[in-house]
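ok here's Peptidoglycan-binding domain-containing protein, seq below lol
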Amino acid sequence: MTPIRPFFVAAILLASLSACAPPDANTATVTRGGLNAPPGAAPDSCWGKQTRPAIIETVTHQVMLQPAELLADGSVIRPAVFKTETRQDIVRPRRESWYQILCAADLTPALIASVQRALTARKLYHGAIHGQMDRATRAAVRRYQKPQGLNSNLLSLAAARQLGLVAIAG
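and the structure came out like this:
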């Protein structure tokens, strides 16, 4: 039996760590008004929260500690001494944004079937019209909302209104 080499162990650990990375940079959570909802949310409203993670960049640069000593003719007596400094800069800060969604009680099979028909008409959904919020329907909802700045598979109230499925309060 041959021993496991440290290189292979490191490669396996690196591969397993990369599998832990989230597939999407944005994450969404669902809350009801009053339970970890945005300030001023109505108690009977439902909300999604999209979190855009910060982007941090590592910057490395050289700092001169001592300049070079030169003769009058320009020849170097003693070269300059440098130190390498590394720091991390926040390129884009973390941001959380709230958006109102339809509550679970509002997502009836009839409404979901209407969502599927509306997304089919826009060539975003290609499945059967069955009134279930399945993976294909959620993916189509994400494709519809993403160009509008909402990278979520939760149907926002604004998107439902744009699709003509929910009345605009007035």
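fwiw The longest helix spans residues 6-18. kinda neat tbh
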